Amino acid sequence: MTDNSLDLRAVQFSGLAARIRRLDASILLWLALIAVLAFLILNPVLRLIVSSLQETDTGRFTLANYRTAYGSIRHLQSLLNSLELGVGVALLATCFAVPIAWAISRTDMPGKAFVRLMVFAAFVTPPYLGAIGWILLAGPNSGWLNKVWMALTGAGHGVFNIYSMTGLILVIAVTSFPYTFVFTSSALDLVSSEMEDAANILGARTLRTTLRITLPLVTPAIIGGIIISFLEAIALFGAPALIALPARFNVVSTQLWQFFEYPVRVEEAAAYSMPLLAITVLMFWLQRQILGRRGYTSVTGKGGERRMIALGPWRWVMLGYALLVCALSVFLPMLVLLQAAFAKAWGRGFSLDNLTLHNFYYLLFEQTQAKQTILNTFVYSAVTAFAAISLSLAIAYVVSRKLVPWSNVLAFLCVAPFVVPGIVLAIGFYAAYAPPPLALYGTATILILGFTTRFLPIAYTSSAAGLRSINPEMEEAVRILGGSRLLAIRKVLVPLLKKSLAGAWILVFIPATRELSSAIFLVGPNTRVISVMLFDLSEEGNFEVLSALGVILLVVTVAIAAIGSRMIGRDFMLRRNS
Amino acid sequence: MSRLRLTGVSKRYGNFLAVDDIDLELQSGEFVSLLGPSGCGKTTTLRMIAGFVDPTLGTIEMDKQILSSPAGSVPPDRRQMSMIFQSYAIWPNMTVEQNVAFGLELRKIAKAEIKRRVGEMLEVVHMSHLADRYPAELSGGQQQRVALARAIVIRPSVLLLDEPLSNLDATLREEMRFEIRRLHDEFHVTTVYVTHDQAEAMVTSDRIAVMNHGRIEQVDNPRALYNKPKTRFVAGFIGRTNFIEGLSDGQQISFDGFALPRAAFERDVPSAGKAVFSVRPHSMRLSDTPPAARDGSASVGVVVLERAFLGEHWDYVVRPREGAVPLRVMTSPMDDIPVGASAWLEFEPRQMALIV
After folding, report:
1. Given a cut of 90, is residue A410 above it in pLDDT?
2. Chain A residue closest in CA terms to B78
């Protein structure tokens, strides 16, 4: 009897509990996720806007910050400089990327695999390392290119000066053109050969077909690339700090950094960062306007085979151009960086008696902070990647299975940091979480939180794409056989997603290891990371040790990327982001 | 007058012979279909005519001028042909009007003339009201009409169509078959049409070339192809059929339970040995009473094994009482003979096609 009544109670209880659980679980989940996203994204951005309108000490409403931020010619000039930089980089990067993307995707140019590899190498090279390479290459008089020029012509001084706007544009363009390349080539891969065949048979030759049909078809991708490289260029901190400051001009990011010199003026920085935010939002709005109602996704049927255009002798011209771009972006800077890393003094050139391992020895064994810094970098990046992937997977799951109402809001919040420049996000984080009550300034937590937010869009798009590729019926088959949702996730979903999650992890990890723009505002004395240390070393002018540190960073990232691609299959980084 | 001529054309991909020694000749203004199952080499043949693929052997000539040969080929953009693709390949970045005008612009025709001809062409395909639309805003059938207009407006020497209806739904497909034929009757463009759908080929074509394993099995007009298939493959691919085997002794051909005089057949049946015939299910008459003996026909007693009522007709499977091989017979919906009953099946030699 007792058993029986117990059963009855259990049934009643479980009926009620089930209802509560069904009701609460999803709402709790929804609230928890939105709270996390509010903490990571909404609050910092709101704090940024609010504090730009507050008096420093009293917190009262004021427009004084804007007056100070925009009240000087110098500050306005920096804004103009940033625009010039952005436009220059976007155009130059397009000139680098589009012909190479076309040659690789549509023609019989030789050496495609190698060129692709080099573009990938340019992609994983942090812009500030590229900048240092170019300082060694084209520093006035002492740079390698200038020395070669003087030796060849007997001239008394060099012709190249990297410390100029042109130099800065070149340096950023050679490291940001892979974005345009990836966008354009993956779009070109989707254009059916029939589109070109249709123009051929009507009488159009290769050049006309390419200009009138192929490239217009991938305009959205090219515009996307232009916008990304523009935004990247104006938000970048490292390369401008290394090149613009010695050249005695400022851009917005370097100016923002100066607001953080003692005494720290967060409110003015917040006010001054508004244009970056506005331009970014404007750009994405503009992109939608330009595209308008034209359809660009090619209407494809079963389609014929992909035919590569035979370029004849022109294929060697294309290869030459591709190798030139690779030389500017990878061969030359990497060569001089390697030389400096193994040199006693880089200016003494390539000779055996200049060769040394001391720079590495110094970093790994003598210098007390370097080891900690290297460890910090990889630990923070790994934790960031785990955090970003877990969060975005949970949200992507909730969104794709529509577990809660308005789940699209969650998706939107996840990709929102994409339109917030890293430097602006960092200032927002600083404004929101550096002061009490949280007082996170100088902790690892604030860095990891900042990085997680910054790379959440990458993690989210990867996880969502992975989830989309899995038919919900896979899970439903588990549920109908009596398995719970959690069991279905554990036994079916996660194993199926393993590869794409590992790919997403690497996609977050690699940029996190080289992140400087947001790190520079959030690091404390004990939480320095490699990128910040590189920057400090460059201020000391210690290029040999700096190069060695850069080589360590590159070797570790490339090793991880290589292991990743071995595990996941080639080209995981060059796939289309959806 | 011969316009397009393929002589001994072959295409080899590694060890795979995609197209095997094809001969085909099209008269000016003729509409010929290449019909066959997937992988039979029909699309490869079409792409060789277009110039996208070079033949391994053989030549393709146009008005006695060699277009393609293993030694070298005129590139597609100089052949003055046009083509309609499986995916339509309508350029999504251009409006309907711009799509249709593209070929004319390449021919350096005056602006006003282009506008007039594009306008006329869109009128013909009933698309004038959508001239300013972008392809993404059109339905499948409308995109198909744009593709047709774009291909025909340049008055091509040859129009090539590569399974153009395979992406449309069934009703639209039927409508577009007649549309394609109507446009051909209006413009008389020499046309090669690739399809795997026999109804499509029969509605549109003057002649059909049936292809299998890279070879052309038979080229004929649709009626001849259906009524007088020359090979087992053609008989089986176009419509349904029964294959029956007879033994010839010079005077008579003996079948499974009945015999017919050799002289009654149209084609010359070998005087000795086996001969295989294709008999369409509806070209035999099934009746429940013994038919009156008629000249040149023969009847055989059969047992009904299975039957199905399909509304428009009955589908019977019967077996000759003294034979072993079942036959399919189609009858009118009125002919109601139960399973297991005895019946008589009447053969007419004129309706029996000798298979070589």
Report:
1. no
2. A203
